[in-house]
Amino acid sequence: MSFTMLHLIPEEAGARPAAEAVAVAMHTVRRLLPDARNYDVWELPGLAFIDGGGNWEGVECPGCGAELDGWWDGAMDRAALPGGYFDSLTVVTPCCATGTDLHSLHYRWPVGFARFSIVTTDPECPLPLRPETVAEIEAALRLPLRQVVAHY
């Protein structure tokens, strides 16, 4: 059985919102997405890669647009800590020597790195969410967000 997960992660990798903002944001998410199968908050012990599952479409250099899929696999392996979390995301792209980080690469389908995520399973609405819907959740959370829609 396949399913879809919607992750709302901070645009700034590693950012964590205040507990009271999370409570307001979860109320907002439940109101805006009333037909989701599950609602959850992930507060992770380390910086984790939030993937798109079957929605993976590849990665490009933010400097020159070169395809980075093969290089990215090695960069992820080098950055990963035991246990699967990440410490430093800093990288220099092999194509044009752009200094950036793994979170800021151009992913053709959004993915990211986070210590915090609001997660809904099978939200039963068009995804990705409309900008005005995300803006309302961002206002509640007091953080800019990135949507990661994962299909498994």
Task: Describe this entry's structure for a reader.
The protein is α+β, with helices and mostly antiparallel strands. It contains 3 helices and 8 strands, in the order E-H-E-E-H-E-E-E-E-H-E. It has helices spanning 19-32, 69-79, 131-141, and strands spanning 4-10, 38-50, 59-60, 90-92, 99-101, 106-107, 112-121, 145-151. A 4-stranded antiparallel beta sheet has the order 2-7-1-8, with helices on one face. A two-stranded antiparallel sheet has the order 3-6. The N and C termini lie close together (9 Å).
Largest sheet: 4 strands, antiparallel
- Report how far the terminal alpha carbons are from each other: 9 Å
What's the pLDDT, averaged over the residues? 97
Number of helices: 3
| Secondary structure category | alpha+beta
Principal-axes geometry comes out as globular
- Number of separate strands: 8
Give me the side-by-side strand order of the main sheet: 2-7-1-8
β-strand percent reads 25-35%
Low-confidence stretches: none
Helix fraction by DSSP (H/I, runs of at least 4): 10-25%
What is Rg?
A: 16 Å
Listing every helix as H and every strand as E from the N terminus to the C terminus, the arrangement reads EHEEHEEEEHE
